[in-house]
Amino acid sequence: MVPMGVSGSWVRRFAFASVVANVGIVVTGGAVRLTASGLGCPTVPYCTEESFFPTPELGVHGVIEYGNRTLTGVLGVVAVATLIAVWRDRPRRRDLLGPAVALLVGIPAQALLGAVTVLTGLNPWTVMGHFLLSMLLISTAVVLWVRCQEPPGPTAAVVPPPLRLLTRALLAVLAVVLMLGTVVTGTGPHAGDPDSPRMGFDLAVASQLHADAVLLLIGMTVALWAGLLAVRAPERVRRAAVALLVVELAQGVIGFVQYFTDLPVLLVGLHLLGAGLVTVSAVRLYLTMRARLPGASPEPAVAAASVTRSSGRSGSFAAPPS
Fold first, then answer.
1. What backbone torsions phi and psi does residue 291 show, to the nearest 5 degrees?
2. Where do the H-state alpha helices sit in 45-91?
3. Residue range 100-115, pLDDT digits in tens
4. How far apart are CA 126 and CA 112, in angstroms?
5. Residue range(s) defining the domain that contains residue 56
6. Which one of 68, 83, 85, 161 has the minimum C-beta count within 10 Å?
7. What pLDDT sits at residue 300?
8. Distance (Å, rounded) from C-alpha 246 to C-alpha 189?
9. 141 in the same domain as 172
10. Are 24 and 32 in contact (CB under 8 A)?
11. Is-contact 112 126, C-beta < 8 A?
12. How many other C-beta atoms can be found within 10 angstroms of the C-beta atom of residue 258?
């Protein structure tokens, strides 16, 4: 049974589809780069100067690159459908309109950045921006997905402020990890095309900095999980922390193995998928640290107590709604 105030089933379905589609486009974009098909269609918006579609002369690389462009269109359809579902849902949720619009606006922004990337011969700095924008869109999709499963209204924290602050710091470190990961990518061998430029950094140094940031991220996640256990945080928050830790450890193992096995294509592709899943898990963890109340309570203490009871725990923290 759906709780009162939660968005309709179509909103929830399309919100989840947005998460899947935005993670998926990162993986398919990585497949373009890993198969050296980044310039399979050497111009935009056409595939060649004369044809909108790939020609036989372009071979399999043209098909792969054009296929990824087509999937961008699918992502756009999902974004439009999501916005329509949010708009038509009753009662209309203003807190869902913002993320839904942002996801739709992000599609042409990504397409424009992708066009610049192709026209600059896969410049690694624009490739970096392309990937990081995808991570922002994944985060936005997760916000929409989590919010539409909750009733509208103010929020109340269900963990102490130090742990929420630690989680914000964890998200900041994750941003650094992702950025350093793109530096490793822009320095490494999988450029997307044999003639594409590279960043020119020392690959061993860039990889070590990335690995150090990953270890810091994992350490912070362990510390956060221990803190959640100590304050007897709601089970859903602890489960979200464990899920993040498991994904991080798997991602770390893949990263180390791929480095010491000379970056095989399959492992690099799995590492891209892992980056998306870590982002999903981290944003979801932060959002579970507060509970939405169906309406403003005249007494903050009463609202806080309601959150505590609904979380199914005793002696735990709950802040006034905000």
1. -120, 140
2. 59-88
3. 999 999 999 988 998 8
4. 11
5. 1-152
6. 161
7. 39
8. 28
9. no
10. no
11. no
12. 20
For 321, list phi and psi in degrees, rounded to 5: -65, 155
Averaged pLDDT for residues 117-137: 91
12/102 same-domain check: yes
15-33 residue pLDDT tens: 999 999 999 999 988 888 8
Report the C-alpha gap between 278 and 276 in whole angstroms.
Answer: 6
For the chain, the average pLDDT equals 86
Query: CATH code at 12?
Result: 1.20.1420
Residue type at position 118: V
What is the tally of structural domains in the chain?
A: 2
258-287 mean pLDDT = 93
**Cβ atoms 271, 258 nearer than 8 A:** yes
SS3 string, 153-183, reads CCEEECCCHHHHHHHHHHHHHHHHHHHHHHH
Tell me how far CA of residue 305 lies from CA of 60, 152, 240, 251, 311, in angstroms: 61, 18, 22, 38, 10
Question: What are the structure tokens assigned to 4, written together?
Answer: 């009162």
Specify whether 308 is located in the same domain as 247.
yes
Cis peptide before 56 (omega within 30 of 0): no
Q: Which helix (H) or strand (E) holds 227?
A: helix 203-230
